[in-house]
Design a protein that fits this description.
alpha/beta, five-stranded mixed β-barrel, 5 helices, 22% strand, Surf1/Surf4, membrane, cell membrane, Surf1/Shy1, transmembrane
Length: 250
């Protein structure tokens, strides 16, 4: 191989090495940035979950609420469960409820405020109910007393379905994503608040549905991923150095 061709080959391989190294370093930095953002989110959620409940914001302020600032805020209010069909939302396990680690469904039903607005309530977890509509119907029926009930829970916002999210089963009133707005539209609940409330208490006497406190348990593997990307960057540089040294000696 001629000297110009050899130099061109080494130069091309060097550029490719620099490209890979830069890409791996960028991915490592991105993971560190995600780690910082995740820690800020965990701190914010921990603070919100530990705070004393506040009054539910009036409906005039609902459009100003957003997930970044208001998700998981604790609220207390009084509402009356409406005598309307409830919905089951399937869960394979919860990241924020340690007592709901297995499969089951969340019981979603509408409740009316004294000011006539409707707020959707996630009344709690019902284990192993995906195939039995009657279990949740019987559990929810005892909540619908026609009397106002003092409720405490957490503001939550609707989820968007993913590419692999199954379609809802309207016959069973079974959903696979916490889209309370879509559920309300499908089941004729009327206009509802842009958020729903994840119920903390009260719980029924037999604990079904089972509400409860939330706990931050977000996965944080970003430092491990960052170290992996930086290690790959270093390995690429070392491999190039060894290869280039061999070429010079040859």
């Amino acid at each position: 191989m001629s000297e110009p061709a050899r130099k061109a080959r080494v130069g091309g391989f060097a550029l490719f090495t620099l490209f890979l190294t830069a890409a791996f370093v960028a991915l490592g930095v991105w993971q560190l940035q995600r780690r910082t953002a995740k820690h800020e989110l965990i701190a914010a959620l921990t603070e919100r979950l530990a705070a004393a409940p506040v009054a539910l914001p009036p409906s005039a302020l609902w459009t100003a609420l957003n997930p970044a600032r208001d998700e998981f805020r604790r609220v207390s209010f009084t509402a009356t469960y409406a005598a309307l069909p409830d919905a089951m939302v399937y869960s394979s396990g919860s990241a924020v409820r340690k007592d709901a680690s297995g499969p089951g469904t969340w019981a979603f039903l509408p409740a009316r405020l004294s000011t006539s607005e409707t707020v959707v309530i996630d009344a709690g977890f019902v284990e192993n109910t995906m195939q039995d509509r009657g279990v949740e119907d019987r559990a929810v029926k005892k909540l619908v007393t026609g009397q106002p009930t003092a409720l405490t829970g957490y503001l939550r916002f609707p989820e968007a379905p993913g590419w692999l999210t199954p379609a809802e089963n309207r016959d069973k009133r079974l959903w696979f994503v916490r889209d309370h707005l879509g559920i309300a539209s499908a089941l004729g609940w009327g206009t509802v608040a842009p958020f729903y409330v994840d119920l903390e208490h009260p719980a029924p006497a037999n604990g079904i549905p089972r509400p409860g406190p939330l706990d931050v348990n977000l996965k944080d593997d970003h430092l491990q991923y960052a170290v992996t990307w930086f290690t790959l960057a270093g390995a690429v540089l070392i491999a190039f150095a060894v290869w280039a040294r061999g070429r010079r000696q040859g």
